[in-house]
What does this fold into?
Amino acid sequence: MRAMVYRGPGRIRIEEKDIPRIEHPNDAIVQVTCAAICGSDLHLYHGMMPDLRVGHTFGHEFVGTVHEVGSSVEHLTVGDRVLVPFNICCGSCFFCARGLYSNCHNVNPNASAVGGIYGYSHTCGGYDGGQAEFVRVPFADVGPSKIPEWMDEEDAVLLTDACPTGYFGAQLGEIREGDVVAVFGAGPVGLFAAKSAWLMGAGRVIVVDHIDYRLEFARRFAHAETVNFTQVNDIVQWMKETTDFLGADVCIEAVGAEADGAFFQHVTSAKFKLQGGSPVALNWCIDAVRKGGNVAVVGAFGPMFSAVKFGDAMNKGLTIRTNQCPVKRQWPRLFEHVKNGVLKPSEIVTHRIPLDEIAEGYHLMSNKLDGCIKPLVIPTHVH
It folds into this structure.
């Protein structure tokens, strides 16, 4: 099969790999029909994640057709169209039993934090991802769900991570009716977080970024107010001034490890890897939220130390809630929203790229070229 393969920071290529095989009776092999490049894939592409090995195949957002099932799989049959959450989870451990599917203990037992994630380095279990023609799906009765007849495939692929993660970010913010919600980052997750904030009763939604075409997209797609942080003297001061000097009720951090905005932080983290990620946007959230407010963090950071202003958070009485999104928990409500036309996740798709040209897709997304918000990847066999 053809698969995207990592060859070192900034270097990926398409290679021939063996089609994955059933390794456990609960496995399924899925033939990928549509995948996506995620903003957090760029952290891998830039070499930001520890224990990322040459030869690894990325891709944690994908949908496809069941090609083969293990002997114990009961809910899927060959030929079923499925969407697969980015979290690999067993469904029965201490954490899965509490709905913490992104912290499953059995799929990444050497880790004390994150569970298993497709195509996201050996820190996250070392599972090959879906930017390939085929992918092995462990615990096939637990994670995947059949794509409903009425659902468009491009909506389905965005329900594997970007849309649920944005929705989860708004959920973590515990938005109350009339709240002022500030979303830092106008990538796919930030766009979905802004859109979801309205569904939860926000009275005002403000999106912060520094790339004009993304801010314009946020105005159109999420009906949000926007601010370019490079065009104001101090984004925290601006946020105070626009909220009667109180601060936003809820701040959602949807940027993660490669936040721009403060030269020293960006260089020590993104360039020299001295931090687990640039905490610029997270520190802005802590400073821009009101006393007693809520900060939700869904941007992806590495496991190392980051210089976060924790004293300010403590003295302001903030509630900070974080996690990788437990995707399956969001599906029932999100399927309803998509079915009823409240959400159309595929509206954020800007590019459709053949798998053989995936390096170009990473280049576009990494360098914010050609108005790129969300590129989909179409494997060679799909026409």
Q: What stands out?
A: The domain at 165-322 is CATH 3.40.50.720 (Rossmann fold). The longest helix spans residues 327-339.
